[in-house]
């Protein structure tokens, strides 16, 4: 019955209606200029350009005295001057359904996995929605057990928290996301792959995520070869799908890879629309769109659930002062830094303990756990201060008991925090093992 209703609802939205028509005046690069629609459309409206090779869905990105500027969701191949352009009556929305769990969709909410038609829910949901009002939201909730040892201890994640994962390419971001999708304590996982390499999509789905992860996930994919509108919309679509499940009272984990590619897509769109470039060529709208998207995640209100979110950020050469990295760090409730040097030493996840922080501490930990965390972090910091002297043999054991203990802890801590992508451990067991390692190294854990 539900399927029949969904099909009927979908058909009614495809019925032809009267439309306002303009025509193509010029095309330059990705931008199509159209006349005759200036009073009929606004920024963000959708249009259909009737080209030689079929209709092309486009979005309005600018309006001035020269006409209406459009960018495509596909390609302008075959489009000529004089071709008709119609205002699209299909709103910028999707209709998520519970049956989307286990499926892979594109930025427009269309199936990509070859498993047939995608059922539509009864309630339309805007792709680009406003964040919930701040004073209607709950506070961040209790700790979410990720079963990723280094996260549960050193960068704990609470329900409704938003965390940034900062790393260069090839340091293990995707693997870490897959570990969270398989083991994290959440009802639904929504994964957004924005600007992903085409050859890596199947690797991520089959090898990293696997059947266990896919069984409770919705994956939204836009590959790097797609137009900037599709790459940007993939992030919005993933967020809208997460909001659908949140409003049902479920705990949702949103994993978006990557914010940097979202920002790059917005840069292409803004520059094509005539915006002036600012920091590293990014137009002002890029820095306006980042908080608008990320603020949609977080604690819910009333009977709604929460959206706990992790956003990955590409930092070339470890440059944490990159404009996008700097902007995201200011929005997030903490950040995890993946270090190439640690990855090269063979420890995965390659989290830099001293450069990573969760802003939910100390409340995210039980007092006893927080005492263990402080003792371990202090010892790690002490070892880092003396590491160069220790490696060249300039430090003589017995000179400083605190440094001696830090040296004794370094190798056991490294082994404890190393974790294969198919491994999982509850936070309580991780803390117990860490406490044992501290005791073996004669490091005192102060009573809370």
From TrEMBL:
CDD domains: ATPase_flagellum-secretory_path_III. It is an enzyme of class 7 (translocase). Its EC number is 7.1.2.2. It comes from the Bacteria. Residues 159-343 form the AAA+ ATPase domain. It is found in: Cytoplasm. SMART domains: AAA. Keywords: ATP synthesis, ATP-binding, Bacterial flagellum biogenesis, Bacterial flagellum protein export, Cell projection, Cilium, Cytoplasm, Flagellum, Hydrogen ion transport, Ion transport, Nucleotide-binding, Protein transport, Translocase, Transport. The keyword Cytoplasm applies. PANTHER family: ATP SYNTHASE, SPI-1 TYPE 3 SECRETION SYSTEM ATPASE. Belongs to the ATPase alpha/beta chains family. This is Flagellum-specific ATP synthase. It comes from Alloyangia mangrovi. The gene is fliI.
């Amino acid at each position: 019955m539900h399927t029949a209703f969904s099909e009927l609802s979908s058909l009614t939205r495809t019925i032809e209606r009267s439309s306002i028509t303009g025509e193509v005046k010029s095309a330059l690069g990705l931008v199509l200029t159209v006349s005759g629609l200036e009073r009929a459309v606004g920024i963000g409206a959708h249009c259909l350009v009737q080209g030689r090779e079929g209709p092309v869905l486009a979005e309005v990105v600018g309006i001035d005295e020269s006409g209406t500027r459009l960018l495509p969701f596909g390609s302008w191949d075959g489009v000529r001057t004089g071709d008709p352009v119609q205002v699209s009556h299909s709103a910028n929305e999707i209709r998520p359904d519970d049956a989307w769990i286990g499926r892979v969709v594109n930025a427009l909410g269309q199936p990509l996995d070859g498993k047939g038609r995608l059922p539509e829910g009864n309630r339309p949901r805007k792709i680009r929605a406003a964040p919930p009002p701040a004073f209607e939201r709950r506070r961040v909730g209790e700790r979410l057990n990720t079963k990723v040892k280094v996260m549960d201890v050193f960068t704990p994640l609470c329900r409704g928290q938003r965390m940034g994962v900062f790393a260069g390419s090839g340091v293990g971001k995707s693997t870490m996301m897959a570990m969270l999708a398989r083991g994290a304590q959440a009802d639904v996982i929504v994964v957004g792959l924005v600007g992903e390499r085409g050859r890596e999509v199947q690797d991520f789905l089959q090898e990293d995520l696997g059947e266990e992860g896919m069984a409770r996930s919705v994956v939204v994919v836009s590959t790097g070869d797609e137009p900037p509108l599709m790459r940007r919309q993939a992030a919005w679509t993933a967020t809208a799908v997460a909001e659908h499940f949140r409003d049902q009272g479920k705990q949702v984990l949103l994993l978006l890879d990557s914010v940097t590619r979202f920002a790059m897509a917005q840069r292409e769109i803004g520059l094509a629309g005539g915006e002036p470039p600012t920091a590293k060529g990014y137009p002002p709208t890029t820095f306006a769109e980042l908080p608008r998207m990320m603020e949609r995640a977080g604690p819910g209100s009333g009977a709604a659930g929460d959206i706990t979110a992790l956003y990955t950020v590409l930092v070339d050469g470890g440059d944490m002062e990159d404009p996008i990295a700097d902007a995201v760090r200011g929005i997030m409730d903490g950040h995890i830094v993946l270090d190439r040097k640690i990855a090269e030493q063979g420890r995965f996840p390659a989290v830099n303990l001293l450069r990573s922080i969760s802003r939910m501490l100390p409340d995210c930990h039980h007092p006893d756990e927080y005492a263990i965390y402080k003792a371990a972090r202090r010892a790690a910091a002490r070892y880092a201060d003396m590491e160069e002297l220790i490696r060249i043999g300039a430090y003589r054991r017995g000179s400083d008991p605190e440094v001696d203990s830090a040296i004794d802890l370094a190798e056991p801590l490294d082994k404890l925090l190393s974790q294969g992508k198919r491994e999982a451990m509850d936070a309580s067991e991780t803390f117990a093992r860490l406490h044992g390692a501290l005791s073996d190294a004669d490091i005192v854990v102060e009573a809370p």
